Amino acid sequence: MVEAPKVRVPALARPWPSVRALTLAERRWIEGASLALTVGLALLLNTWRLDDAGNGNTYYAAAVRSMAASWHNFFFASFDPGGFISVDKPPVFLWLGALSVRVFGYSSWAILLPSAVAGAGSVALLWAITRHYFGALAATIAALALAVSPISVAVNRLNLPEPFMILVLIGAAGATLRSLDSKRWWWAWIALAGALVGVAFNIKMLAAWIPGPAFALAVVVGMRGFGRREWVRTGARLAILAAATFAVSASWMLAVDAVPASDRPYVGGSQDNSVQNLIVDYNGLGRVDGNESTRPGGQSPANNRGGFPGNTGPFNRNGGTNAFGGNGAPPAGPANGRGGIIAGTPGPWRMFDDANGPQISWLLPFALLLAPLAFWRWRNSPAGRAAVVLAVGWVLLFGLVFSYAQGIYHSYYTSALMPGIALLAGAGVVATIDLARRDARWMLASLPAAWATAIVQVHQGGRVPDFYNAVPEVAAAVVAVAAIAAGLFALTRRNVFVAPALVVCAAALLATPAAWSSYEARNASMNTTLPQAGPRQGAAGRSFGSEAFDGGVASLASFLEANGDGSARWDLATTSAQQASTLVADYNISVMAIGGFSSNDPTITVDEFADYVADGDVRYVLANEGGANRGGFLPGGQSRGGNVPGGSFSRGGQFPGAPPPGQPASQTQPAAAKGAAVVMQAVRAECSPVSGEAVGQYAGNLYDCAGAADRLHAYN
Questions:
Q1: pLDDT tens-digit profile of 120-137?
Q2: What are the boundaries of each domain within the chain?
């Protein structure tokens, strides 16, 4: 009789005393079921009633529609069908959306499904990585934690960069770890890791490099010795990782910047029409130090640096005093607070405050407090300890950058922390079980993590009255009982019951995030521009109460379709992409957004705009009096009669940088001044206002520039 082959079982997969050992087939069946159920749950949460979000973020939806129309627009990530300006992000996630639209046609599902699939793919990839190093139980807990993370579900249901960046970075982390336990192909794995970081860079630029030091540290920690040969190989790994990262990261930037400006769209968000400037400024260091040159309304960085005084402490509930009338936090709303430009107050406790706590803090204490146990358990396993260090570094680096960011920061960015948190939660539970089996005192060391996390969950849930408040309270009670029971079982050497007790504890801690994520899947009202998990306090819903205003957009679209001759490159010119997004995304109207997303991009001069008018490329212009967004419209048909997130915050009824009323532009600005401010000033002076019921509320703000080219040329 042929003897069955022996199968090496990792220590953590070995049965507890008095528990029957599972066969290989049984283990494989259980692991397959775990993977299928967690990924299936993620896909269900990400896709349930997905089309309720319409076109999602219409700024990106407009770009996808434009990019699907031509390969030229596709490569350069053009915002508009006419190819005037690009979006202010790199193109990879938009490429996937545009390809989906090309294959399936333009629809909500075609636009949003790639994000939902990417989110589920992250769960699957995290499961596989965690299973490889820490076992199936850790993989199941980690995958569940990521799948039911409320903020992860919120971003996975929209066409945002985050789901794709997170998926690619998880792949890079897995490739980095595989390079440590691969003797023959280590160079290929580490090159793949660097290439994937480069792809992530071309999804969200410098944000993708934030966990880079954690990758490098993991390579060092994963060394198998301290001999000369091992140091040389480690140095080679780091060099390959850096080279591949830089090469792939720079590829699209170098290609775009090498093309003459006249042959491509203006690089949206930049101040000199280059991707290099976009990387360093608006999508780079400016986000951290607050020195974005496109800061809304031309605000000085000093206006916002340092955050909002008075909001201190980990659980501040607006009890401090500051410049905002006595509250310890800025007023909730579009410009501040939840979902706003400054989401919470910069500082060490930002991830636990009112804006960010309900998004990311549910398992954060649990993961970080169990991390030392996980490191100690796998201290003798190079790849295992490297995985723990990588996950800790991932969480701390993203957390610190987001906590102290002085520039444009939104609370949904915190979704980037979840893969590291999830892996540490799974590895920490299994490490505790294994260590307590050897010495019961390890169980006592883990109890504070469970209790502290339960307290945080009760507090965060209590911020929102009448919203699943019973769930964290019941969960905390279960955690208290299960943790005490696990400790008693360990102390009395009844080891067979310790693992189930800890699993119950972990499951209880997942209950509240699961309840919140189910709300995300079932709730049709959402902010598709600045998503947040849970009730929409301070970040208004998708419509902003503007149902009546959507009819205004429709009437304008009808007017443009009826009065255009079909030969114009752009049916309309506007101040900003925020005004143009709905027309492009919902009505397929070609709109020139002169100032880009924020209306502050220095794109063209009045003379250059006059050339477009002379050539018949553009005729109608929406030149709103009193600021870029007064009477305008936001992505998704959202309307607010004044200031908007990321838009041009009007001061005294003026465009940013525009001359005072009645004073010619030539008296205050050089003739070569560029951007929406000077162009709109000239349009209001030299073009003819359009009136009548056909344009509805835009009467007086819509201008017809037919025949005005010479006057526009002479304006300066």
A1: 999 999 999 999 999 999
A2: 16-47+107-258+354-522, 547-715
